[in-house]
């Protein structure tokens, strides 16, 4: 990282999407300033840097914003190439990694929200999606092979959802998806991951409080 580089992350501590960016920066050894935003009262800086979607995370690198978590992670990998490559060099393998990261966004995120809001049919489909990810992981330590890669960074922040999903969906991740749980524990042994994710009990309490408010509003 050049001495002149200024890196700021517009952040929200409970956001798995912001956690992706923090893991990628930690893997690269990049120091950054984290600015916590209040999404109920969005900061002028957030509105300036992401005027289209007005969402976090936003990475500001030397004054220039990059938005959307997976795009930010790719940007980090392309700019800071000195260590810990997250995407393979081979174009076909890169496309494969992008496919599975996109799968996480399109399937796991949406189904997780449906389980969270107590939609029973979503539980079975979510477990099937987790099992597909287990098949993709196979006997590799990480989705990236021997080291943490793009798909790992995309998925591992949702470890913070596991307890919530078990509670809301009334199922056991260890029983249903033991390979994925073992992978999650392996990822948590990496400092770049463990220091980028909040305390799991804290995040569970946060999401349960959100769910309680959601249910109260729905039943009002």
From TrEMBL:
<protein>
    <recommendedName>
        <fullName>Glutathione S-transferase</fullName>
        <ecNumber>2.5.1.18</ecNumber>
    </recommendedName>
</protein>
<dbReference type="InterPro" id="IPR004045">
    <property type="entry name" value="Glutathione_S-Trfase_N"/>
</dbReference>
<feature type="domain" description="GST C-terminal">
    <location>
        <begin position="90"/>
        <end position="216"/>
    </location>
</feature>
<dbReference type="Pfam" id="PF02798">
    <property type="entry name" value="GST_N"/>
</dbReference>
<dbReference type="InterPro" id="IPR045073">
    <property type="entry name" value="Omega/Tau-like"/>
</dbReference>
<dbReference type="InterPro" id="IPR010987">
    <property type="entry name" value="Glutathione-S-Trfase_C-like"/>
</dbReference>
<feature type="domain" description="GST N-terminal">
    <location>
        <begin position="5"/>
        <end position="84"/>
    </location>
</feature>
<dbReference type="GO" id="GO:0005829">
    <property type="term" value="C:cytosol"/>
</dbReference>
<dbReference type="InterPro" id="IPR036282">
    <property type="entry name" value="Glutathione-S-Trfase_C_sf"/>
</dbReference>
<comment type="function">
    <text>Is involved in the conjugation of reduced glutathione to a wide number of exogenous and endogenous hydrophobic electrophiles.</text>
</comment>
<dbReference type="InterPro" id="IPR036249">
    <property type="entry name" value="Thioredoxin-like_sf"/>
</dbReference>
<keyword id="KW-0808">Transferase</keyword>
<dbReference type="GO" id="GO:0004364">
    <property type="term" value="F:glutathione transferase activity"/>
</dbReference>
<dbReference type="GO" id="GO:0006749">
    <property type="term" value="P:glutathione metabolic process"/>
</dbReference>
<keyword id="KW-0963">Cytoplasm</keyword>
<comment type="similarity">
    <text>Belongs to the GST superfamily.</text>
</comment>
<dbReference type="InterPro" id="IPR045074">
    <property type="entry name" value="GST_C_Tau"/>
</dbReference>
<dbReference type="Pfam" id="PF13410">
    <property type="entry name" value="GST_C_2"/>
</dbReference>
<dbReference type="InterPro" id="IPR040079">
    <property type="entry name" value="Glutathione_S-Trfase"/>
</dbReference>
